[in-house]
UniProtKB/TrEMBL annotation:
The lineage of its organism: Bacteria, Bacillati, Actinomycetota, Actinomycetes, Micrococcales. This is Aminotransferase class V-fold PLP-dependent enzyme. Keywords: Aminotransferase, Lyase, Pyridoxal phosphate, Transferase. The keyword Transferase applies. It comes from the Bacteria.
């Protein structure tokens, strides 16, 4: 294929994706609305794509840019003198490293645990799975959706190596009460990580306008590490996050070195060895192009869009706020006249993607909205389309999977979901063609309603089955 053919084919492939600009995809992507910032980011990404952060002496430019970004982030989150940080591939890697450092920082603890509110990001469960750290889940307040500090403190024991809080939580967009949680961790001699992957680059810019913001930075006694994603509200190309530690001693356990082979001595600050310099350079370029005053304006725009949407939800009878939003994320619930899964489908037909979130324990299913700076330009249009989507969802009624399908799915042992059983379930669900090949339906509400009715372990197994079928060569 020549260059023009490749460009044409790439455009054809991209045409089936959700849009990444314009504010109509309300999850996964972040749009500043600044074309020049996007352009300089792409230019830097391409210019440094072939560089390698594996050896900072070979590419000192990457080390200089990474240290500069860590320094800027540290000033935003009130980092103490002597703090350090690393650039990672995203929030999940930052969280993995925070858990790894906490585990290996306490080698005397044979069966380590970490205390999590039930709203902590799923990346902590991934870290638990990878590193053998038992998650101790503490229910949140059912109204505010914030972590319960007293219950968190009570869950800490002599096997606890880490306590976690969110600023804000992804699912509901609220800031946990970091102060008392970190104090309890410090009193027990335990690390406290604040997951500010979402809020780390936007909440600091809102403090002046909202002085009552819940404290969550290193200024809170007992906070030992904070994760901050740049490819979210710093609006940089994916994927780059920062993990900041209050001291180099706290970072030391997740550093890795190996000279026990005949090649070069492997030295890593993160999970990665080879690490493209593209995302680091792109982040450095975008951050310096927009500047702190520019970020303050973007944060205000995203916050305004969030509060406007919250007011719109209050006027749509079947919908309610799941929690009062503290930042730029919003979650809504629906009453018995409709369901969030059908509302999500109806929004998609109107050109908007909103993320359905299934129930978890006592927490109901919700519809999640991530509001970027550009979203304020279309607040009125979105409010109108949301009203129309809800009206259509009420007319259709709540999605309800057939009893046959629920029974068939519920009979499956998630530990032993073989190919034949999964194929049978796909056929009953109408998600397979004549050859048995997986076919995703245009409307996902019936499937989401089915998954919502199943235990989480079974839901995980079924969705992994779908991903496994999708990720096969053509």
């Amino acid at each position: 294929m020549d260059a023009d053919e490749i460009r044409t084919r790439l455009a054809q492939l991209r045409a089936g994706d959700l849009p990444t600009q314009g504010g109509r995809t309300l999850a996964y992507v972040y749009d500043s609305g600044l074309a020049e910032a996007d352009a300089i980011g792409r230019e830097a990404l391409a210019a440094f794509a072939s560089t390698n952060g594996l050896d900072p002496t070979a590419f000192p430019s990457l080390l200089q840019m990474e240290n500069d970004l860590v320094g800027m982030a540290g000033r935003l989150v009130d980092a103490p003198e002597g703090f350090v940080g690393v650039a990672t591939s995203g929030g999940t890697e930052s969280i993995l490293l925070a858990v790894l450092a906490a585990r290996d920082g306490r080698p005397e603890v044979r069966a380590p645990r970490m205390v999590l509110p039930t709203t902590a990001h799923a990346a902590f469960h991934k870290a638990a799975h990878y590193f053998g750290v038992e998650p101790v889940l503490v229910p949140v307040d059912p109204e505010s959706k914030r972590a319960d500090p007293e219950a968190m403190a009570a869950a800490i024991d002599d096997r606890t190596v880490l306590v976690v809080a969110s600023a804000p939580s992804y699912a509901h967009g609220v800031i946990d009460p970091v102060g008392p949680i970190a104090a309890a961790a410090a009193a027990a001699g335990v690390r406290c990580h604040v997951d500010a992957c979402i809020g780390g680059w936007v909440l600091p810019h809102l403090r002046t306008a909202e002085p009552d913001q819940e404290p969550w930075t290193f200024a809170v006694d007992g906070v030992t590490s904070i994760s901050v994603d740049l490819h979210k509200y710093a609006y940089t190309p994916k994927g780059i996050s920062l993990l900041l530690h209050a001291s180099s001693e706290l970072r030391q356990p997740h550093l890795f070195a190996s000279a026990r082979w005949p090649g070069y001595t492997m030295l890593n600050t993160t999970m990665q060895s080879t690490k493209s310099g593209g995302p680091v350079a792109a982040a450095w370029a975008v951050v310096h192009h927009i500047g702190l005053d520019g970020y303050a304006d973007l944060a205000a725009q995203a916050r305004r869009a969030t509060l406007e949407l919250a007011r719109s939800v209050a006027d749509i009878a079947p919908l309610s706020l799941a929690a009062r939003p503290d930042a730029t994320l919003l979650a809504v619930t629906a009453d018995e006249t409709c369901d969030v899964f059908t509302v999500s489908d109806e929004l998609l037909t109107r050109g908007w993607y909103a993320q359905p979130q299934m129930s978890c324990g006592d927490l109901p299913a919700t519809l999640h909205f991530t509001l970027s700076a550009v979203a304020h330009r279309s607040s009125a249009e979105f409010a109108s389309d949301l009203t129309g989507a809800v009206t259509a969802a009420v007319a259709l009624g709540p999605a309800a999977p057939s009893a046959e399908l629920v029974a068939a799915a519920s009979s499956v042992d998630p530990q032993h979901l073989d190919e034949e059983t999964f194929s049978g379930l796909l056929a009953v669900a109408g998600m397979a063609d004549r050859t048995g090949r997986l076919v995703l339906p245009e409307r996902m509400a019936p499937i989401n309603a089915l998954l919502d009715a199943l235990p989480s372990q079974l839901r995980e197994a079924l969705l992994l089955g779908v991903v496994e079928r999708l990720a096969r060569p053509t």
